[in-house]
Amino acid sequence: MFVGAAGDKPPPYVSVGLGVCAEANGRRTMARKERRTIGPVELTDMAYGGEAVGRHEGMVLFVNLGAPGDVVNVDVTITKKSFVRGSIVELLEPSPLRTSPPCPYFGNCGGCQWQHVRYEEQLKIKQQLVAEAFKRIGHLPTEVLPTLGMDDPWYYRNTMEFGFTFESEPGLRRLRGHRIVPIKECIISRREINETLDLLWECFAQDRMAEVIPHNAFVRAGDLLPPAVVGLFGHGEWPDIGDRMVRERPDLIGGVVQRKGRGSEKGRTLLGKDYSEHRLLSKEYRASIASFFQVNRLQTEVLIQTALGWLDPQPGQVVLDAYSGVGTFTKQLAGKVARIVAVELGPSANADARVNLAGVDSVELVEGNFGEVALPVERVDSVVIDPPRGGISPEGMRGLLCLSPARIVYVSCDPTTLARDAALLVEAGYRLERVQPVDLFPQTYHVENIALMTKVV
After folding, report:
1. Known catalytic membership, residue 402
2. What domains, with CATH codes, occur in the chain?
3. pTM score > 0.70 for this model?
């Protein structure tokens, strides 16, 4: 059980009122669902999803913004057969794991869940959550190494997506719910993104340059100048805003793009370029608005070095990079092996990969869904696979096993689907050697993981 924190000031909490009754048209109606307060309850663990966990009268209790070691009274908002969910209304005894969150929006804004927990404890909790996923879901007790964290876990995100209030103010969604919390600065985002956020405030909230506001504004900051590219998602008309942003900050804004949605290929470039440019381990990449790219440059370099170290590429080998994206791992593998087959479905990512891998003769790009598209090889020596959050598809799992690699390095942002897929690979004749969590997302419950699987001979 975790224990925690003398003297630290607990984060602010917003009290939630109890359900009230109203008379309407002669009928007695319930304006809000009735709630109840329970406690005192000691919180003992953290759940994958960011909530603290306790028990009350035989029921599992999930609590927003709690910490292991807290003793609390809880406003119950959801009651199910086997669990209840709620928020703290009174912090009776704060955990020694607590710290004062530096962000004034924390507790209301949903961008972070764990600023109130000391960073060194966040790393331990993530290691424990990953181990629990492998034990509970994969039934695979295994060595989960200590989480690789950051020296400075702030101002790291290179990508953010902001919504807008009805008053045209940019911000982020609430911790619970869909309403937008207006924010002036996000202290887990790179400073270039916060400077771009200032421009969004000027254009939309202050100067009202558009009658129709975007659904979302996507901002990605690269490592080459000018660093930021902005995507405005929606059906409005915003050509003057692109000109305004680039004119005011030519050192910051490299391009402004309009798209119908985050992954849409349809749209137009209002000004400049529709991609950002990044540097990972001395190699340069471009990533378009619609392409996935990791949000934390320093920790992505740690991820690449660890994953490819475990892959142990050798001259003469054939390697598969499945769900290869813009070529993040493929480009780092070039020159280390004889042949690389990179498989990616997304049109935007494939277009970026062709640019990023131009001149690399040992790479064959295959456009299509891994497991469904034909490959130019029947066997490979090893595989690095980095699927989306849902894990490897059934078709992808069959395709992977048909290739019969001696070594699989599985990179995943979701320990639950990683544990599920690792169990399937063990059933098919692989050994789970070890798992390495890498903290790409400080102050949140998210964690990237690397698992090494070797074929049993």
Report:
1. no
2. 1-98 (2.40.50.140), 159-280 (2.40.50.1070), 296-455 (3.40.50.150)
3. yes
